[in-house]
Amino acid sequence: MEFIKEESEDIKIEATFRVKQEDTEEQTDLMALKEESEALNEMEENHYDFINREKSFSCSQTEKTSSIKSAQRTGEKPYTCQQCGKGFSWRQSLKRHVIVHTGEKPFTCQHCGRSFNRKEGLNFHMTVHTRESLFTCQQCGVSFTQKESLNRHMRIHNDQPYTCDQCGKSFDQHENLDVHMRTHREKPYTCSECGKSFSQKRHFEDHMRSHSGKQPYSCPQCRKSFNHKQHLEEHMRIHTGEKPFTCQQCGKSFIQKGNFNRHMNFHTGENSFPCGHCGKSFRNKATLKYHMRFHK
């Protein structure tokens, strides 16, 4: 039930991000991080409460346990974080919370040396080394650990025989592969306003509209306009209910890939955005930007 509650928190965050996508992206990232942390702490405390109800304690422990449960009934939180003032009912919950401030990653994979700040993240990562290949190609027998990898592979058997040797993306014509390869080696289209360069002309033209203020892509249902076709396509999913990005671990689906990536970080405990000054890592770019202010 606590997991369902946690997922409900994520859905609220996703809805907020979806409606105010262009104006409040960084704010939503920070809210997502805060809500996620609070949900995890609550889940941890309830988990320990469940354990204490199930275990049989000796007489010498009865008085201590009784006082702790009494504190929980009254809402008392005797364990306080010295850095942010947040209170906890359990000492272990406080210890796990402090890692958020220190950046410590005490759980290390013995296979590849990768470290995580939570044991759950390490356990999930270990499946990369241990789990069997669950998704098998019915045409050639090659197996994969993720459905997305199988889908990419299937393009070879379909009508997309031309595959990029750098990222694995496939195309139906060699000319399209040539155009794609520019994304890896050259960016001939440069914006005269800000100097940003692009590998494809259509991306360059989309970018130029951000300077002119033009929004040629309009939603036929609510008339909202966008300066990028991709933004319109993402917006249309609100009306259609389509959620193309699905988590293979828990089955939750998302409208936007960014929300899906943030959700996957919750499973892995991965901090993908490191600070170039102190080496501390963060789960999203917005939090890293906020952290960088302290180095100025």
List keywords for this structure.
transcription regulation; mainly alpha; Double Stranded RNA Binding Domain; 11 helices; disordered N terminus; two-stranded antiparallel ribbon; single chain; RNA polymerase II cis-regulatory region sequence-specific DNA binding; 11% strand; 296 residues; DNA-binding transcription repressor activity, RNA polymerase II-specific; Znf_C2H2_sf
Structure summarized in a few sentences:
One of its GO terms (biological process) is regulation of cytokine production. With 296 residues, the chain is mainly alpha-helical.
**CATH class categorisation of the domain at 131-243:** Alpha Beta
CATH architecture of the domain at 131-243: 2-Layer Sandwich
Percentage beta strand: 5-15%
The string of secondary-structure elements, in order, is: HHHEEHEEHEEHEEHEEHEEHEEHEEH
Round the mean pLDDT to the nearest integer and report it.
70
Strand count, sense and barrel status of the largest sheet are: 2 strands, antiparallel
GO cellular component, one term: nucleoplasm
Family: Belongs to the krueppel C2H2-type zinc-finger protein family.
Main location: nucleus
Function: May be involved in transcriptional regulation.
Structural commentary:
Helix 1 packs antiparallel against helix 2. The protein has helices at residues 2-19, 25-54, 59-74, 91-102, 119-130, 147-157, 174-185, 201-212, 229-240, 257-268, 285-292, and strands at 79-80, 87-88, 107-108, 115-116, 135-136, 143-144, 162-163, 170-171, 189-190, 197-198, 217-218, 225-226, 245-246, 253-254, 273-274, 281-282. Strand 5 (135-136) and strand 6 form a beta hairpin. The radius of gyration is 24 Å and the shape is globular. It has a domain at 131-243: Classic Zinc Finger (Double Stranded RNA Binding Domain). The strands form eight sheets. It has a two-stranded antiparallel sheet with strand order 1-2. The chain is mainly α.
